[in-house]
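Weekly sync, protein design subgroup
Attendees: M.S., D.O., the rotation student, P.L. (late)

Item 1: inverse folding check
M.S. brought a backbone from last month's batch and wanted to see whether the design step gives back something sensible before we order anything. D.O. pointed out we never logged the input encoding, so this time it goes straight into the notes. Structure tokens as presented (725 positions):
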């Protein structure tokens, strides 16, 4: 996995569609929209079926307004919370970069903490000094309950100078009644969007028809915008306008009939080929069309077609990118699946290849999946998973993996990615299963580094340092930055600080070469932890602050993995206010990830710092840390750190102070000691060594006495400190 730009935004989704020609100004609807802004309504809801003219109405209205507009054209893939908010924040950032600069770093955390991002966005919007309209077009494609809840929360928090406009085919699951009662909602629905005779006349003007026929068409289409556009296109080739009007109906079947009997039957073979072949594309541009159709002149064809067909919508002002009206694309696809059934996979494959080299990795993956090229899609998913996961787009990655089918269980990289997804979600058993499965099928060892990193990090997250060391021992020398970082972290967690430093140095070298911004940011935190525990607070503070500076540079300030950098600053800062603030920030971030050792360390650090300051919150945090440590099979040096803090602040737990063995262990005691870091129970250890359970219990009591400890976990770490393990 590499840290690439897989999450890069499609900028044409942040631009209102270009106005068609002829464009009909609709003053009565513009007045409704203007009134919503004048009365500072928090939300405008345009809810109407496809083809009602919602997007065109908004684009025309906004083109006449002097105030800025943030536009976001939603797609079904934007249901991922982090992906959705990355587009919303970027759209607003085009109007006010300060908002994006302050809120953008929170976007990757949206999957786990979208409410925090919404609150931060509302605060940033409150600082605006001019009115702002935020439009989300095609909002109905968003099917995430989390996103729905977050958008409703934004509406509740929206400052009066900001109006959110949702254009949708169905009402969102918001409490609209409350907004109505409070006078905070403007609604424009299908009945409002219907064209009357005065508005339909200019739309049909190119057909040179009189007012009576216009009235008849308005009646037959019930003022439906798409039906009127199709009527205007059809009348150009009709032998008798009167006869055409008599047989015209403005229902869905009209669209099917129009495509088969009018549009596709009257265009040239080359245009028909282009229309059907390009129906597989979400967005169209000349070079992409040429790649898919095998024909030339795609850019000129787009511009020529758009000039005469309002159902081809421009996405930028340069005439480079377009999309089909959703109705037109749906029906072109329906026709293509019959007429080009044996070519559909090739069309998707050609689109995927073009996007892989020139366009969107997300689109490339989608087209490879549609082409049945699941192994190739899996390769791309693995290649760009790190960027997506670090960007918080967990739902996007899960969606890709689910579409791989059984390939996800036989592709090493896909298994590793699924393991990381499970780890992020706190499903440690599933993460371990994926780790084992990937290890078993990686015959040539090509992905050994990724597999080892997954195994190490899964054990660390679960609080099992012995398991992490076991996973590390079974791997080769690090071959990539993530593996080296994981190995270094395992050694730090085990208290083997001198062994960890050269591995972490290697991780930083690899991160700079790959490059991997995530590892470059997080690895110094492990160095800082080792330095602090080794008695070098100045060096620890320097590395921790370096990590936080890099986190700010690479938009990782909200990443949970930066938690311990704040904890180190809390323990080394000479400013009590900064120490307390950093301590709490470390805990806040650590709570966002299901990683026991990270949370425990942050809790102990905060509890220690706040207790020293006499803050009543301190002891409670230490008590919580104890509950976390008790859930860890082997907490490593973090357990010792907690015991020392508890002792320092007057709890009943005695801190281990052993610097050498009180008495040498016997050979049988050594044999038992070597098995204590495992998940084996005392009964299992007895079976492993072919002795009785009582014998093992006696050996354990002797080991604890000779190490000067009272429990198994502390015995394991003390033995590591003494070089016995």
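Designed sequence read out in the meeting:
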């Amino acid at each position: 996995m590499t840290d690439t730009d897989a999450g890069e935004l499609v900028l044409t989704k942040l631009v209102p569609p270009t106005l068609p020609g002829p464009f009909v100004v609709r003053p009565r609807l513009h007045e409704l929209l203007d009134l919503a802004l004048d009365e500072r309504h928090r939300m405008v809801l345009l809810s109407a079926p496809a083809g009602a003219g919602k997007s065109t109405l908004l684009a025309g209205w906004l083109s006449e307004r002097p105030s800025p507009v943030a536009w976001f054209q939603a797609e079904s893939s934007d249901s991922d919370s982090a992906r959705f908010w990355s587009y919303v924040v970027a759209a607003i950032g085009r109007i006010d970069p300060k908002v994006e600069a302050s809120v953008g770093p929170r976007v990757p955390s949206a999957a786990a903490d979208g409410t925090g991002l919404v609150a931060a966005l509302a605060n940033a919007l409150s600082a605006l000094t001019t009115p702002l309209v935020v439009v989300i077009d095609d909002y109905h494609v968003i099917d995430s309950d989390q996103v729905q809840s977050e958008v409703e929360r934004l509406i509740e928090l929206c400052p009066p100078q900001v109006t959110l406009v949702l254009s949708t085919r169905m009402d969102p699951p918001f409490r609209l009644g409350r907004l109505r009662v409070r006078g905070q909602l403007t609604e424009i629905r299908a009945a409002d969007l219907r064209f009357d005779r005065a508005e339909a006349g200019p739309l049909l003007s190119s057909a040179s028809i009189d007012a009576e026929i216009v009235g008849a068409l308005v009646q037959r289409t019930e003022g439906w915008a798409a039906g009127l556009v199709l009527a205007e296109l059809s009348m150009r080739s009709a032998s008798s306008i009167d006869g055409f009007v008599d047989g015209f109906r403005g229902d869905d079947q009209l669209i099917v009939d129009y495509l088969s009997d009018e549009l596709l039957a009257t265009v040239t073979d080359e245009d028909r080929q282009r229309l059907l072949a390009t129906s597989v594309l979400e967005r169209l541009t000349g070079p992409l069309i040429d790649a898919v159709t095998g024909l030339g002149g795609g850019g000129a064809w787009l511009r020529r077609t758009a000039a005469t067909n309002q159902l081809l919508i421009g996405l930028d002002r340069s005439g480079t990118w377009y999309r089909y009206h959703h109705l037109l694309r749906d029906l072109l696809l329906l026709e293509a699946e019959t007429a080009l059934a044996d070519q559909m996979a090739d069309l998707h494959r050609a689109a995927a290849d073009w996007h892989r080299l020139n366009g969107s990795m997300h689109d490339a993956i989608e087209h490879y999946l549609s082409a049945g090229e699941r192994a190739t899609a899996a390769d791309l998913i693995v290649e760009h998973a790190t960027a997506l996961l670090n960007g918080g787009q967990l739902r996007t990655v899960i969606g890709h993996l689910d579409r791989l089918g059984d390939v996800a269980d036989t592709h090493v990289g896909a298994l590793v990615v699924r393991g990381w997804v499970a780890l992020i979600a706190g499903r440690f058993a599933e993460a371990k299963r994926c780790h084992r499965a990937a290890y078993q099928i990686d015959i040539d060892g090509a992905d050994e580094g990724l597999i080892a990193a997954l195994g190490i990090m899964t054990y660390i997250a679960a609080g099992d340092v012995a398991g992490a060391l076991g996973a590390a021992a079974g791997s080769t020398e690090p071959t990539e930055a993530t593996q080296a970082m994981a190995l270094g972290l395992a050694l730090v967690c085990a208290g083997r600080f001198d062994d960890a430093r050269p591995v972490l140095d290697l991780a930083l070298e690899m991160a700079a070469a790959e490059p991997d911004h995530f590892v470059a940011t997080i690895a110094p935190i492990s160095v800082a932890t080792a330095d602090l525990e080794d008695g070098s607070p100045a060096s620890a503070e320097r590395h921790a602050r370096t990590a936080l500076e890099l986190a700010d540079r690479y938009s990782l300030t909200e990443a949970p993995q930066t938690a311990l950098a704040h904890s180190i600053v809390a323990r080394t800062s000479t400013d009590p206010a900064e120490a307390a603030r950093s301590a709490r920030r470390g805990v806040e971030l650590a709570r966002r990830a299901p990683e026991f050792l990270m949370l425990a360390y942050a809790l102990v650090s905060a509890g220690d710092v706040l207790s020293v300051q006499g803050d009543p919150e301190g002891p409670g945090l230490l008590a919580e840390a104890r509950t976390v440590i008790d859930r860890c099979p082997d907490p490593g040096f973090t357990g010792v750190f907690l015991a020392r803090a508890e002792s320092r602040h007057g709890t009943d737990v005695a801190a281990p102070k052993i610097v050498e063995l009180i008495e040498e262990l016997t050979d049988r005691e050594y044999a038992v000691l070597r098995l204590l870091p495992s998940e084996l129970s005392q009964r299992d250890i007895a079976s492993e060594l072919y002795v009785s359970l009582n014998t093992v219990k006696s050996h354990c009591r002797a080991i604890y006495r000779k190490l000067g400890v009272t429990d198994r976990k502390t015995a394991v770490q003390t033995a590591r400190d003494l070089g016995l393990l």
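Discussion: Residues 195-341 form a domain with the Arc Repressor Mutant, subunit A fold (CATH 1.10.10). The two ends are 33 Å apart (CA to CA).
Action: P.L. to compare against the previous round before Friday.
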